[in-house]
Amino acid sequence: MAEFSTSTVVPYPREVVERWHARPGALTRLTPEFSMAIEAEPHPPLAPGAKAQMQVSVPGSYGVVRVPFVTEHTEPPAPDTFAETLVRGPMKTWEHTHTFETVKSPTADSPDGFCRITDRVEYSVAPGGFPGAAEFDEAALEPTLRAAFEGRHDRLLDELAYDAELAAFGGPKKILVAGSSGLVGQQVVAMLQTAGHEVRRLIRSTPRRENEVRWNPDLGLLDRGAVAWADVVVHLGGASIGRRFTAEGKRRILDSRVDSTKLLALTIGDLPASERPEAFVCASAVGYYGSDRDDEQLTESAARGEGFLAEVCEAWEREAAQVEQYGVRRVSIRTGVVMSTLGGVLRLQLPLFLLGFGGRVGSGEQWLAWVSLDDITRIYARAVMDPQLSGPVNAVAPDVVRQADFARTLAGMLSRPAALPLPTLAPRLVLGREAAAELAVADQRVVPAALAAAGYEFAHPSLESALAATLGIRRDTEAPAEQPAQAPAGQAPVEQAAPAS
């Protein structure tokens, strides 16, 4: 049996850090994208007997190959500690103990001290548990574990700092979320919950938890009381657009967005003024601008483009905007291509690039409007809290790139060539001519003007930063465990303790 241990100090009081970990969504927000995909968090969080269902990345696969990993929380061995053990997965054994303790802060500005987090894992590998496990020495997993826990540390610091930013806009809110099971929705709910907000989820199936509310947009069924309960309503729902644009496919794409948004907006309008939510934050997409805008810089004031998706986004935003006549703030989040190994375009392309078959799509001259998963999550949370954000908001990174540049950057980070361009015929064969033109080879130079005006600072403003984070590629020369943690304003930084092997 092998043992791995790491200890780090974060510049926040122990009570703050421990409370954050005990909230729903903490595992989702804490876990680096390259390390694990969270399928179900333990419920209640950290309670003995509660199980977490995950898909853990096979070492060296950059998240392309993931295998089931289920753990169960056990009785903590000591106060200010939680522990988990393996239920099912590629390991033979896995015992993880997570301990919080107060340490003296280096300044008098923090009388409550800082928090040291110590993670200790005892594990053994099951032969055949994952590809290559038969030849795997247990000690060889240490770099993988170290990268995962260093990633957790980085994410924890980022989350606590951003929570403080959001808190500057006001106290905890009650938030009703539709479309919470998707790639972005899962992260948005987790961020709002760990920031201390109360979240209820609109779902189409039978509710199993106290924070779930059933609705059926197809039948026009929605509990008015659930909407009246909320300070803010967030809607991220809609059928996948990654399909052929047949008559039936188009109907499903359009109706799933327009009908559900209309139901939410009408329900908000039917409530007495004193019971209406203060804001309605609704998804949209950069498809609003059409698929062929060449070098035109597209701010939120740019005209709608041509094509099916542009028509869908216009109808979608028009329904969301109905709440404005009732005095409710409306935000339509025009989302770009989300860069994440957990799903979307990058996850589809990554296997080809790892095999050395990646390259530009079409001519490669098309502008690619993209955003990291962390930033699109933060943008939704900011839209919930910031009363100055309203109307359409371009949720794209400022570093818009051409398709050829994207291919070269991704291939370079993976140390692979990018010499095999994908002809436009290939996506046409899969998606059909119309969908391929609007999805695979769309040309949109979108600018995040509204976010810039609001002073939003991107977690990943460059493509290199976003890809490094989701692939687990370190871009600095020193491990973060040897870097000073960033302290809150008014406090001095503190050195992290070096991980123990």
Automatic annotation (TrEMBL):
<dbReference type="InterPro" id="IPR036291">
    <property type="entry name" value="NAD(P)-bd_dom_sf"/>
</dbReference>
<dbReference type="InterPro" id="IPR010099">
    <property type="entry name" value="SDR39U1"/>
</dbReference>
<comment type="similarity">
    <text>Belongs to the NAD(P)-dependent epimerase/dehydratase family. SDR39U1 subfamily.</text>
</comment>
<dbReference type="InterPro" id="IPR023393">
    <property type="entry name" value="START-like_dom_sf"/>
</dbReference>
<protein>
    <submittedName>
        <fullName>TIGR01777 family protein</fullName>
    </submittedName>
</protein>
<dbReference type="InterPro" id="IPR013549">
    <property type="entry name" value="DUF1731"/>
</dbReference>
<dbReference type="Pfam" id="PF08338">
    <property type="entry name" value="DUF1731"/>
</dbReference>
<dbReference type="Pfam" id="PF01370">
    <property type="entry name" value="Epimerase"/>
</dbReference>
<feature type="region of interest" description="Disordered">
    <location>
        <begin position="475"/>
        <end position="501"/>
    </location>
</feature>
<dbReference type="InterPro" id="IPR001509">
    <property type="entry name" value="Epimerase_deHydtase"/>
</dbReference>
<feature type="compositionally biased region" description="Low complexity">
    <location>
        <begin position="480"/>
        <end position="501"/>
    </location>
</feature>
<feature type="domain" description="DUF1731">
    <location>
        <begin position="423"/>
        <end position="469"/>
    </location>
</feature>
<feature type="domain" description="NAD-dependent epimerase/dehydratase">
    <location>
        <begin position="175"/>
        <end position="386"/>
    </location>
</feature>
